[in-house]
């Protein structure tokens, strides 16, 4: 995901190992793989990375438009909306360091950003790429194999997984499934009512490294999650 919301970093904080599914299929429509919301004086605004689509392809083959126009536009937008935030300069320097890397692939940009921001907040999770594992199965079987590759006994996931995951398969292999139990804890924000679903850049700008205390959600067992949905 592109500079994702705080919820993804809550998953990272809870996990011993976080696997970037970089060889999963790139969504055909709009997605958070290459766009994200930020706050502005006029509700929300989108930051979008333009990409060169070539039909159905894995995320790690998606090439970004190789010019600095969109990067410069993003930086200008962030400066316009967050220059008055207490930790704007720290956020801006971090983004600059990411955008100055000679990267062509969207997955490389997203992975670099997620890992740099995790380090900024002091999250010590180990990061791995699924493309490095050589696992060729699909869907739930693939996820299970990835977990077993690291002798894992728990899989922490976001809410979207309920639409496709085979819970019984995991149980039969003694792997617990835990869904995120998002607290959406409010932190100081600019521009009116609190919005928990904007980019992590918002937390970084407004709270600095102390923002790690707001990365505080837990999990609930899959049976409890589905029962209460």
Question: Would you mind describing this structure in some detail?
Answer:
The chain has 229 residues and is an alpha/beta fold. The chain has one domain. It is built from 8 helices and 9 strands. The strands form 4 sheets. A 3-stranded mixed sheet has the order 7-8-9. The mean pLDDT is 95.
The domain count comes to 1
Largest sheet: 3 strands, mixed
Radius of gyration: 18 Å
- Biggest sheet, spatial arrangement of strands: 7-8-9
Q: N-to-C terminal Cα separation, in Å? A: 25 Å
The fraction of residues in strands falls at 15-25%
Tally of helical runs: 8
Order of SSEs, N→C? Answer: HEEEEEHHHEHEHEHEH
How many extended strands? Answer: 9
Mean pLDDT, nearest integer? 95
Classify the helix fraction into a percent range. Answer: 25-40%
Secondary structural class: alpha/beta
Shape: globular
Q: Pick out the low-confidence regions.
A: none
What would the keywords be for this entry?
single chain, 229 residues, alpha/beta, 3-stranded mixed beta sheet, two-stranded parallel sheet, 8 helices, 36% helix
Task: Briefly characterize the structure.
With 229 residues, this protein is an alpha/beta fold.
């Amino acid at each position: 995901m592109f500079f994702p919301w705080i919820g993804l970093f809550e998953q990272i904080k809870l996990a011993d190992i976080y696997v970037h599914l970089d060889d999963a299929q790139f969504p055909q429509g709009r997605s958070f793989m290459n766009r994200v919301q930020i706050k502005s004086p006029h509700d929300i605004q989108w930051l979008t990375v333009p990409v060169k689509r070539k039909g159905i392809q894995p995320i790690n083959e998606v090439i970004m438009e190789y010019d600095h126009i969109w990067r410069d536009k993003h930086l200008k937008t962030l400066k316009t909306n967050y220059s008055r935030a207490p930790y704007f300069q720290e956020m801006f320097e971090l983004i600059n360091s990411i955008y100055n890397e000679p990267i062509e692939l969207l997955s490389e940009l997203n992975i670099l950003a997620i890992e740099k921001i995790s380090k900024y907040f002091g999250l010590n999770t180990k990061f791995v790429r699924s493309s490095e594992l050589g696992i060729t199965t699909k869907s739930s079987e693939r996820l299970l194999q990835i977990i077993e590759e690291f002798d894992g006994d728990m899989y922490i996931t976001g809410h979207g997984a309920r639409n496709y995951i085979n819970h019984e398969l995991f149980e039969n292999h003694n792997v617990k499934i835990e869904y995120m139990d998002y607290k959406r804890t409010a932190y100081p924000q600019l521009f009116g009512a609190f919005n928990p679903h904007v980019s992590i850049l918002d937390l970084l700008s407004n709270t600095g490294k102390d923002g790690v205390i707001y990365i505080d959600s837990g999990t609930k067992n899959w049976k409890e999650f589905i029962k209460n949905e």
